[in-house]
Amino acid sequence: MILLGHELKANVKSLLIWSLTIAVCSAGLVLMFESVADGMKDVAASFSQMGDFSKAFGMDKLNISTLNGYYATEVARIITIGGAMYAALIGISILSKEEEEHTAEFLYTFPRRRSYILVWKYMSLLVLLLFFNLITTGAEVVSFFFVNGKIDMEDFAVYHALTLLMEIEIASFCFLLSAFNKRRQVGLAMGIAIIAYLADIMCRIVPDIEFIKYLTPFYFSNVADIFSHADLEFIGMGVAVLVTVISYLLALTINSRRDLKV
């Protein structure tokens, strides 16, 4: 518990910066809905007929002049991309920072197994993601009270639950990479998040690479699919759980056996 509290304290600044920035941006876009709704009615039909572009961003199955469609196609993308990048950042940093900052010599001399330290490190990662989502989701819920329009709260809840699972998968995979590295590979982590997002877009446009939908966590958590009531991708969710568990176990094994730079 002491290590958990230490990690939360050490990461509270970045948590507040990321969560409040994304919360303000997403809530601000929601509050703009009434001022752009009339204009959206004029272009909704055009956007829905833009071929692959419409298909990639869900505009072919959602009416962007409604609050549901506007939220799914415009607002939620900020949460999706921002959450993935934040998850990648904390996942890649939480282990490797000890060697990079030369604090491993202090931390790993305590009379505790490395596995004990790793468990609490991973727990802190999950708690940070939970707080991130509580702050950003809470800001959106509050903003809904100030606009005319009805959001489907069931779809909203499903979207955020699956987004949290997506973030946990990305954070866990980057947590595994962190166990390999003596320095924080922030560029690599951000690249993984962005490539995974682009993979979701590409597999919706190019039928020949549709199989990669099982490799990207953005596919099963796609907000347009959820708000258009498409079937949930349970295989993708299962893959996410499997990747999360395997990443954690491999990180535990690798970090427990390799020589650490102190």
Description of the molecule:
This is ABC transporter permease. Keywords: Membrane, Transmembrane, Transmembrane helix. One of its GO terms (molecular function) is ABC-type transporter activity. The chain crosses the membrane at residues 12-33, 116-136, 156-179, 186-207, 234-254. It comes from Streptococcus ferus. The longest helix has 31 residues, at 114-144. By secondary structure, the protein is mainly alpha-helical. Helix 7 packs antiparallel against helix 12 (234-257). It is 76% helix and 0% strand. The chain has one domain.
Strand-residue fraction? Answer: under 5%
Query: How many structural domains can be distinguished in the coordinates?
Result: 1
SSE ordering: HHHHHHHHHHHH
Question: What is the β-strand count?
Answer: 0
Class inferred from helices and paired strands: mainly alpha
Head-to-tail CA distance between termini: 24 Å
Number of helices: 12
Rg, nearest Å: 20 Å
The percentage helix is over 70%
Instruction: Report the biggest beta sheet as strand number plus sense, adding barrel if it closes.
Output: none
